[in-house]
Amino acid sequence: MPSDDNRTYSIKELACDFGVTPRTLRHYEDQGLIAPERQGQNRIYSAEDRVRLAWILRGKRVGFSLSEIGEMLDLYNVGDGRETQRAVTVDRCRDRIRALEAQRDDINATIEELQEFCELIANLIRDKDRGLWVRRDTGQPLGKYQP
Amino acid sequence: MPSDDNRTYSIKELACDFGVTPRTLRHYEDQGLIAPERQGQNRIYSAEDRVRLAWILRGKRVGFSLSEIGEMLDLYNVGDGRETQRAVTVDRCRDRIRALEAQRDDINATIEELQEFCELIANLIRDKDRGLWVRRDTGQPLGKYQP
DNA sequence: GTTAACGTTTACGTTAACGTCAACCACGAA
DNA sequence: TTCGTGGTTGACGTTAACGTAAACGTTAAC
Q1: β-strands A42-44, A37-39: how paired?
Q2: Distance in angstroms: CA A63, C1' D13
Q3: How confident is the model over A27-51, as pLDDT tens digits?
Q4: B101 contacts A111? CB cut-off 8 A
C-alpha cells in the first residue's frame, strides 16, 4: 500500500486532524514552532510538520509553555553545532527529564489520593444501598430508603 | 516532642514556606480555595490550611487550573450531601484519575524521547572525545581537534 | 457573475494567575 | 514621635495562548 509519508495537508486538514483551530497553527508559526512550505500565500504542511505538531501538542499536555517547547525543538537542530553547544544541550535535556519525572511523581501522588477518596465515597454509596447504615443515636439500621 | 499541628502561621510565613507570595495566598482566598481565620483584619493560617495549600500547589504542578482545583477540593466537602451528588462526585473523580493517567503516559513518552535524544548527543560528544569521528568524503579519522 | 468555501494578514479582545502599586492601619523599638 | 516591619483592601498592569472580527484574494460550482 502507498505510504502516506509524502502527503501534504492544508491548514484546516491538519488542524482538524489534531483537534485545534487554524488560528492555533498560525500562532505556532508566529512563535517559530513550525514553518510549513508555501504555495503562493497558502501554507502546505508535510508529514514532518505533523510529527512536529504532535510533539508540540504533547508538550502542551505535559505542561510546557510554547517557548519551552520551542527550545526543546531547537535541541533537535543543533546536531551540527559546536561542542560546547552540544554539552549545554545535553544538560538542559537532562534538566527537562528530571522536571518531568518530578511532575510524574506529583501525578502519581494525586492519583493515589483521588483513588482513596473515590473508593471511600463509593463504599458509602454501596453500604447504603445494602442497608448497612445505622442511626447515630440508637445504632439501629436505617433500612434502605432513609435520607 | 510537641506536635506542631496546632501552630498558626502569618501570611508571610506560610507564603515563604511554600515559595509563593502573600499575594498568591490572597488570590487563592479570593477564588475560594482557602479560608483562613482572622484576628481582626489579619489572616491566621492553621495546619489544615497548610495541607490545603499543599494540595493546591500540587494541583497546579500537575496542570490543573485554580477553578478545577477548587472543584476537587469541594469534592471533599460533600460527604454529607445527597446520594445523587455523591454518585456525581465519584464519576468526576474517576474522570480526573483517567485524565491524570493519560497525562502520565504523555510524560513517560516525552521522557523516553528526550532520553534517547540525550544519549545520542552524549555519544556524539564521547566519540569525538575519543577521536572516533571521520571525514565524510574520505572516511579518514578526523583526529581530536577537528571543528 | 456571484456565491460558497477556503485561504491570507492585521489587529484588537479575552481569560487566568497573579504582579505591582497606592493608600491605609497597627505595633514595638529607638 | 517617628521609623521600620508587617498587615489590610482596592485597583490597575502583565503575560501567554489563543479567540474573534475585519478586509481582502482565490478557485470551483451553479
Answers
A1: antiparallel
A2: 25
A3: 999 999 999 999 999 999 999 999 9
A4: yes
